[in-house]
UniProtKB/TrEMBL annotation:
The chain crosses the membrane at residues 27-48, 68-86, 107-131. It comes from the Bacteria. CDD domains: SQR_TypeA_SdhD_like. It holds the Pfam family Sdh_cyt. This is Succinate dehydrogenase. GO terms for molecular function: metal ion binding. The keyword Cell membrane does not apply. SUPFAM superfamilies: Fumarate reductase respiratory complex transmembrane subunits (SSF81343). Its main location: membrane.
Length: 150
């Protein structure tokens, strides 16, 4: 009993003479490196938020405001945000390349992924670096209780 395995479907053809940057190789390397760095960042984030101090019961607006006031934690959170979003976007791009059959649908889906990743990175970075728990000129009754102690 013999069976023939069909050649895998590949949407791209690669010329032997093509020179330049191998984006697939660098995307593969990025996924491995960012995955390891993300493990350290995520578990550090979880350890500090859930284990240090009073644990989960200490998580409130004041805790987050205090963390986001520190340049160290701002950098930590932004690095985690950027790596996670680019890592996830690259993974989604790989899925689109594997399963989208037409060139047009592949382009539209990859464009949507790029747009959403860029938008989330910009918005998330702005939130981290411009967060102010006690904005000047706000009505006192709308401000959190921690603002009256500052």
């Amino acid at each position: 009993m013999t069976s023939t395995i069909e050649a895998p479907r590949s949407p791209y053809t690669r010329s032997a003479k093509k020179r330049g940057l191998n984006w697939e190789k660098w995307g593969w390397i990025y996924m491995r490196v960012s995955g390891v760095v993300l493990i350290v960042l995520i578990f550090g984030h979880l350890f500090v938020n859930l284990m240090v101090g009073e644990g989960v019961s200490a998580l409130n607006f004041a805790f987050v405001a205090g963390k986001l006031a520190s340049p160290f934690w701002q950098t930590w959170d932004v690095l985690m945000l950027w790596l996670a979003l680019i890592h996830g976007g690259n993974g989604m791009r790989t899925l689109v390349n594997d399963y989208a059959t037409s060139r047009i649908s592949r382009g539209i889906l990859k464009g949507a992924i790029l747009l959403s990743v860029v938008a989330l990175i910009v918005l998330g970075t702005l939130v981290v670096y411009t967060f102010d728990a006690c904005p000047a000129g706000s009505p006192a009754d709308l401000l959190p209780a921690l603002c009256s102690t500052l």
